Amino acid sequence: MLKTAFVAARDRQRLSEIASILIGFGVTRVVDRLGLRALPLLPRRQPRLDVTRLSEPERLRRAIEALGPTFIKFGQVLASRPDLLSPAWTEELQKLHSQVVPVPWEQIQPHLEQDLGGPATEVFASFDIEPIASASIAQVYRARLHSGEDVIVKVLRPNLRKIIEADLRLMAHGARIVENEWPDMARYQPREQMRHLADGLNGELDLLNEARNCELLAQIFEDRDDIVFPKIHWDYCSERVLVQDFIHGIPPNDEAALQAAGIDKKLLAQKGTDAFLQMALIEGVFHADPHPGNMLALPGNRIGFIDFGIIGRLSQRRRSQLLILIGAMLKQDADGLMAVLLDWTGASNPDLTKLQVSAQAFVESHSTIPLNLGLVLTDFMNMARENDLAMPTDLAILFKGLVTADGVMRYLDPNFDLFAAAGPTVRATMKTQFSLAGLKQKAEALGVGLYGAASELPTLIHLMLVRLKQGRVTVEIEIKGLDKITRGIERAAARVAVALVVAAFATQLAPRLIDLGTPVFVSIGLVVFILGIGWLVLLMRNK
Fold it and tell me: pLDDT band at 1, cuts 50/70/90?
């Protein structure tokens, strides 16, 4: 309670705004479960009349949009997690958009000129002050360098960092409350989700990070001229400004423009799949949001990628697991599928019989060819949720990217089968990872690790024997739920202490102050007495 009060005091204004919006949109269950109503000086606004007839998911979505970029990003993450939320919630949250009314040029101009070191109209040969895109984090403008290149200038919206940092502090504290007070929610890993959200948003608030991400992915395809990434113009870049080449491309869902440009849509779908899988399966780093606005068709059947605020990363172990999962799906191996899922969510304790039935039903429902990858992955995460399993964050990011990429490829080819298209890349990767040379390399690494552990074993045994002789062996016992008992004792002690102080004042100090006849002392004493009683009541309410 004291920690909550401290957090509330530090970010009281933002917390008040958040609570006001949630209550105003009728999202009262969140307010009540987090105990926000118990905090003083927060608004008590009644739900708005125009939202009372909406469903709970609709009210939450509208409240999130009103809360701003931090909550919009979090809502978009939840929209891609059918392993956490039921379809009614994910489908509504998918309607979240970060397109917002542009900040007027008069507010953007001083920040931009400060970073550029001069007026935009002088730094660039030409600069259009009307933004071509406006999102919750940044706005994008067209410009031309004095050297002749057409570029885009991405500028952070002013005064964002303070609000986002306050939001992240409050949300991280809320995640701790949820994880500590409701053990049944622990499988959702709320603190891990908040850590991931904070990492992503902090990355987006530094446009130099986006520039580095772009060059990192561009290096993967430096020997291919049919996969295009924008050139970064570092001389103009800063934490708040990004300048890169403008890619003149066609969105994959613009059918008329694709036909006019003579684009081979099936070939482009195959190239897009190859590029995404090479990033994810081979290099372990990939574009995390390949929607139609971020993957563009270029003349000559080339494909261009833009917008690298967030990228995903996969360890070698994860990539191997993913290959095994794909193999289990293609072979309709329910036991293999179940084994991979349990390996990913090892901290859970599911009903194995129920999980086996679910896995068998899953492979049977996706036994027809061609496979719809988006539906396969969505059903896979639904199966995890129904069996009280939560996907690791890095894999959830990958699955979201795969589902999004699959949707883009279906714009290009309605009969597109990403599993079939992925065949060459998957086979080549499996051949590399599970070849004799690959297995030899893994065996050597294992041998080195075992040798290192074995070399330390005599020292560890000797140390243990010495401590046994000295009687200094320590046994640590962890009692689950002990932290809650401790907090309960602390709260009880606090109530007793407050009660004793108030009682002492009432019986001893107050009469003496009155005897002094000094109105100031009497007033001060009365205020202290009332505050003590109020605090005691508040502690009792939050027991």
Answer: very low
